């Protein structure tokens, strides 16, 4: 099954060669014909959005329901491993790696920009830039970053961890299909599934790297005057990808774990800055109120398909996110499985679903809520010397309209225009860079793990090669159209793998029922008469 020598030593030759051919063709085609590449992704994603929007909405909701039911079922007591196995990592390290791998760059990129977009207009309000619009904006943002994406990660990660640690199969995507196709997972069917997983992972991670490098470029421009340009962004991709590759060579227990824990401490630091220098009472009230508002609306939002209007809004927000999370699912699911051996199914589901969701909502409240408050309460002095309300004129709305990545730094500067605000901007830029590194090194480790059929320590040469491949795809997507190309690539890459995830869910369901069959009712013995 695995190569014995040469560059493919320790790897699955069929899956590795197929994956490399696909990625190489994309890189060469995108480099030589960037306009044609952008047009191709536009056409593919446009067709998916036109005909399968309902499909994305339905399957992601189904996954969330599946997770909740499974956590509450008798299967929740099963451990991901032998019955006497225990977790390898502490809860803090586990949560740190979960959050860093699962959200990271995207949360920094969109935490202010998305609420501000929805604050101006969305399908659920009649008038933008009001207090009601601000509440709805946060509700939509919570929805996009809440339980649904983590449900996707739970399904993939749980299936991988269960079949690997409890059933002794390789830690790779194909193993989740064992209850359905048996030993054929080692043939062409298994190779196809793993190649689709690699395809989704490479493009999903590359999408995030593209967003991250744009954010870093803007931060360096704000701090040191570096020009915002495609050339500088390509250089940043190269430099940071080299650092990420060095990190992945050290493995999960060292580089990835350490960077994830550093990320969490830096996250705490910048959140404290926003809480102290921002509208503290408003933010705390918004967080508590926002959780309740989210829970009250999560069911209708989960099944809303905009059927009457069929506008483009949902396609370029909700469906983009669902596609993006789906393309990330082999990467994050595999990574979560790697760090979750020994936990029970119930602990796994509750931990992965709830803790990152609550932390993400806190992040969104402190960043997005601060920006909304500044825009809602902004005032100006008119010609008569009177202080009048000037909602939407604080500068953040303008920044989002001109350059999405500048919204973060505009907000931090409005909170403190002195040295503290400058330090916060440096901290935010470092945080994005570290999230960039952890996403890249985790993604590279996952790709090589899949292609080596679950080896805990894939060949170092393959880790280097795939680290550079992910960087190359990110660079090509930037050349092919920036943010729009990144979005269309994520939606396109997710579609074929979504079918695999549904099959994985069915395979897990069957395997659990085979291990713990439904209890039979006890036979009641009736004593003989007399």
TrEMBL record:
Membrane topology: Multi-pass membrane protein
Entry's transmembrane regions: 12-34, 54-72, 92-113, 147-165, 186-214, 234-252, 264-284, 319-337, 349-374, 420-453, 465-483, 489-509
Primary localization class, coarse: membrane
Keywords: Cell membrane, Membrane, Transmembrane, Transmembrane helix, Transport
Coiled coil: none
UniProt KW Ribosomal protein keyword: no
GO molecular function ontology, one term from the record: transmembrane transporter activity
UniProt family annotation: Belongs to the BCCT transporter (TC 2.A.15) family.
Name of this chain's protein: Choline transporter
Phylogenetic lineage: Bacteria, Pseudomonadati, Pseudomonadota, Gammaproteobacteria, Aeromonadales
């Amino acid at each position: 099954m695995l190569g014995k020598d040469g560059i493919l030593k320790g790897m699955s030759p069929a899956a590795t060669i197929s994956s490399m051919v696909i990625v190489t063709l994309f890189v060469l085609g995108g480099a030589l014909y960037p306009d044609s590449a952008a047009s191709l992704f536009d056409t593919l994603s446009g067709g998916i959005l036109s005909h399968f929007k309902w499909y994305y909405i339905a399957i992601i909701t189904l996954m969330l329901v599946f997770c909740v039911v499974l956590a509450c079922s008798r299967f929740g007591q099963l451990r991901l491993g032998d019955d006497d196995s225990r977790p390898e990592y502490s809860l803090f390290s586990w949560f740190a790696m979960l959050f860093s791998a699962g959200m990271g760059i995207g949360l920094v990129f969109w935490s202010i920009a998305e609420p501000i977009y929805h604050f101006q207009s969305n399908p659920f309000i009649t008038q933008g830039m009001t207090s009601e619009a601000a509440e709805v904006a946060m509700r939509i943002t919570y929805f996009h970053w809440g339980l649904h994406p983590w449900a996707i990660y739970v399904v993939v990660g749980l299936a991988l961890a269960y079949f690997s640690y409890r059933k002794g199969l390789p830690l790779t995507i194909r193993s989740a299909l064992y209850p359905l196709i048996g030993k054929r997972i080692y043939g062409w069917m298994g190779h196809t599934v793993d190649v689709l997983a690699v395809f989704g992972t490479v493009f999903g991670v590359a999408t995030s790297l593209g967003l991250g490098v744009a954010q870093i470029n803007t931060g360096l421009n704000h701090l040191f005057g570096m020009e915002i340009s495609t050339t500088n962004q390509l250089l940043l991709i190269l430099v940071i990808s080299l650092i990420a590759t060095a990190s992945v060579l050290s493995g999960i227990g060292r580089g990835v774990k350490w960077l994830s824990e550093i990320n969490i401490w830096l996250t705490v630091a910048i959140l404290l800055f926003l809480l102290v220098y921002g509208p503290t009472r408003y933010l705390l009230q918004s967080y508590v109120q926002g959780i309740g508002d989210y829970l009250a609306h999560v069911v209708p939002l989960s099944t809303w398909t905009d059927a009457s209007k069929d506008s483009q809004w949902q396609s370029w927000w909700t469906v983009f996110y669902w596609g993006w999370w789906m393309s990330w699912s082999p990467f994050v699911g595999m990574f979560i499985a790697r760090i979750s051996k020994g936990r029970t199914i119930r602990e796994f589901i509750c931990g992965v679903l709830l803790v990152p969701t609550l932390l993400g909502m806190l992040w969104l409240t402190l960043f997005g809520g601060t920006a909304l408050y500044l825009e809602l309460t902004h005032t100006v002095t008119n010609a008569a010397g009177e202080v009048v309300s000037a909602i939407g004129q604080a500068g953040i709305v303008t920044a989002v309209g001109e350059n999405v990545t500048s919204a973060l730094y505009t907000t931090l500067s409005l909170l403190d225009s002195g040295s503290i605000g400058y330090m916060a901007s440096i901290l935010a830029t470092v945080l994005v860079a570290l999230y960039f590194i952890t996403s890249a090194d985790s993604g590279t480790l996952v790709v090589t793990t899949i292609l080596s059929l679950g080896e805990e320590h894939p060949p170092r040469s393959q880790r280097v090669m795939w680290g550079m491949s992910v960087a190359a795809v990110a660079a090509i997507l930037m050349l092919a159209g920036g943010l729009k190309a990144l979005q269309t690539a994520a939606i396109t890459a997710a579609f074929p793998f979504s079918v695999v995830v549904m099959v994985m869910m069915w395979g897990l369901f069957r395997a659990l029922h085979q291990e713990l069959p439904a209890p039979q009712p006890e036979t009641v013995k009736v004593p003989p008469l007399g």
